[in-house]
Specification:
It is built from 6 helices and 2 strands; from the N terminus they run H-H-E-E-H-H-H-H. It has about 140 residues and is mainly α. The protein has a single domain, classed as Sufe protein. Chain: A. Helix 1 crosses helix 3, helix 2 crosses helix 3 and helix 3 runs parallel beside helix 6.
Length: about 140
């Protein structure tokens, strides 16, 4: 499945929920389903700077594909990073670098988050692309 197809699938799932509370619960649920992040990866090197909550992001390469690992001390923030992981995980660095991540705007989450949390979405996307760029250059 392409990145764009994964984005559309996620947007379709979110459109089922009429109430924002239900959407938040769904996003939080995605965060709870993330594989546990190894404690050794929860370092300042992997911390996404500028987020209100602590968000750690690590990435590895396997078979030419980027595998992301993340965690947060906030359930909603962990859910937000889970959205990006669901869409970008398992793709080649070049695919990630050229991906249009404006789908996050179409979720409507930014309008219902505090400005600092909404800003975190942009920081997450930037960091995930940065990790892909590091692999592309290697």
């Amino acid at each position: 499945m392409t990145i764009a197809e994964k984005q559309e699938e996620l947007l379709d799932e979110l459109s089922i929920f009429q109430d924002w509370t239900e959407r938040y619960e769904y996003v939080i649920g995605l965060g709870k389903k993330l594989a546990p992040m190894d404690e050794s990866s929860r370092t300042s090197e992997h911390l996404i700077k500028g987020c209100q909550s602590q968000v750690w992001l690590d990435a590895t390469m396997a078979g030419g594909k980027v595998c992301y690992h993340a965690d947060s001390d906030s359930v909603i923030t962990k859910g937000m990073i889970a959205l990006f992981i669901r869409v970008l995980d398992g793709h080649a660095p070049d695919e990630i670098l050229t991906a249009d991540l404006s789908f996050i705007d179409r979720t409507g989450l930014k309008e219902h988050l505090a400005p600092t949390r909404a800003n975190a979405l942009s920081l997450m996307a930037t960091q995930m692309k940065q990790r892909a760029l590091e692999f592309a250059r290697a």
